[in-house]
Amino acid sequence: MQVLESRQATLLVLAQSIFIANQLSNFPLYYTPGLRGLLGGDGRDAKFPCSISWMTRKGLARLSTLITWNVGWYFMLRAFAADGSWLRLIFMLKMYAAGFVTVVATPMMGPDVALGAADKLHCYAATLYIFDHFVANELVLGVSLAAGNLFGWGFGVTAGLCGIFQALRADDDLLAKRWHAHAGGIVPGYACAFSTLKRFLEYGFMLTENALFLLFLFGMTSSFPSAQPVSPSSDVLSSIDVAVVAIVTVAMTVLEVRRAGQSKKSSSSGASPDLREASAVFTKRPATSPRRARSPGRNLQLAKLASSPGCRLPAGRLQEPRKSGGTPRMQTARKSTGAARTEKRKPSPKARA
Q: Which residues of 216-236 are buried (b: 16+ CB within 10 A; e: fewer)?
């Protein structure tokens, strides 16, 4: 029994270390210049503050999360399979399924760091995943919220605050806008701009979200003081484990590289019409500028087009061919201007005398 507990403790500590490394590595992979733009990352458009879901939706941070998160869960499930408790193993499998939908299957779409209308499935799966952490602490890991355990009640407090911040920011800041308008009417001298409140909620969500996961991870093994982990190389990690880790790493790398290539290709092909349209808008001739007369060849083409059956070309689009002396209107204007100048040049009768 002692060997089994040591093996389980080793697998739990290994999974714990991988999960912690995954969460802490998101920050340098998402914000460090030179790394933040790789694999279709945000680059210089990286947002701060933002959620973990926003950090890991693409780029190197997503690739790292896909590999380490799945590998960590593999060793976590191995630990409970070695324990022999099938009920706990089934629950952890259900928890992994909720996390898989959140992390792998439905990356955040945005465009805001809060969960919007395009992220409903991600939102529901993430809520279930967080709730499963409470159940795992209470029934699986023994980190009880009511026992005065720092990791237990700390996780509960930070998870509650994180939920409040997210609820205020969801649905295009619906509740935050209502609360801001209500506070401005009942609090004397309340002059906080909504942008300031929104920024505060973003910082609060980022801080509490990272804190709740770190408290959960560091408290994973706090209820197993008697189990002494053994070296991972001593009959704990088999060749099957190494093969699984290698397969997960290669598969996730190939999938993410392919996704980044497809995203880059679609964005480049999809951006060209917008760029052409924007160029046409900004280079359009002002309405007050005179329009140049069309050439005779152009007018002949328009005449043929207008005479074709089914054509609805306005008659005003056709113009007379441009002659050497200009259009009839221009010739009339020139004659009238020349006559006026001749009248000015004629001397008066008194001057002649």
A: bbbbbbebbeebebeeeeeeb
